[in-house]
Please model this.
Amino acid sequence: MDNLYSSATADQARKTAKEAQKLGSDVKKDFDDAVSRGKDAASGLTEDAGDSTRDLSDRARKFSEAARRNLGKAAGKMSDYADANTALVAVAAFGIGLLVGHLVTRES
Model:
């Protein structure tokens, strides 16, 4: 009673074990390939995102520089207008102050 199984059954078990090992190796190889492709895709996406971020940063910088220049010009024009029309600006400021004071003190 040294062997419960026949030699054919033992051979079949060995073949099945070898096929299972081969299948495991194939699955591991396919998994490694998928991981490698995923890393490559992530790397490409990271590079694309970096390029897009740099482009957006450059556009935002140009926009902010243009806005700063335009605000500087507008402030200069307002200052020139106020200097040229001091009495009108003073009366307008006084009128706005009266209006705001009236709106704040009136009862609902």
